[in-house]
Write a structure and sequence with these properties.
The protein has one domain (about 1-75): Alpha-Beta Plaits (2-Layer Sandwich). The chain is about 30% helix and about 25% strand. It is built from 3 helices and 4 strands, in the order βαββαβα. It has a 4-stranded antiparallel sheet with strand order 2-3-1-4, covered by helices on one side. A hairpin with a 5-residue loop joins strand 2 and strand 3 (about 40-50). The longest helix has 11 residues, at about 10-20.
């Protein structure tokens, strides 16, 4: 998830650039969807890539108008699986739990 915090009074310039040049997203970085605060100050963009370095290229193209935060996210189902995953128990060769596993 990319959180874009628009610099003061930059909304008009941002949308003008998008109209004229597009999103300026490098190949391999895929736009999924976005949500914008009603006051146009923040945009939340769901993006997908196998190469996280592409974010740096994209952020550089907009750094004059936008400050970025990158937050790796997973789906709700993946989060539930992660939350319910239990670490493996450490057992001695006899099968008894070792003190480090408590």
């Amino acid at each position: 998830m990319v959180i874009e915090r628009n610099k003061p009074n930059s909304a008009e310039a941002i949308y003008k650039r998008v109209r004229e040049k597009g999103r300026l997203i490098p190949d391999g970085l895929n736009y999924i969807d976005s949500w914008v605060a009603k006051d146009l100050s923040i945009c939340y963009q769901l993006m997908e890539t196998n190469d996280a370095t592409l974010f740096d290229e994209w952020f550089a193209a907009w750094s004059d108008l936008v400050d970025f935060d990158l937050v790796p996210v997973v789906s709700s189902a993946e989060a539930a699986a992660l939350a319910s995953a239990k670490p493996p128990q450490n057992k001695s060769s006899s099968g008894a739990e070792t003190p480090s596993s408590k």
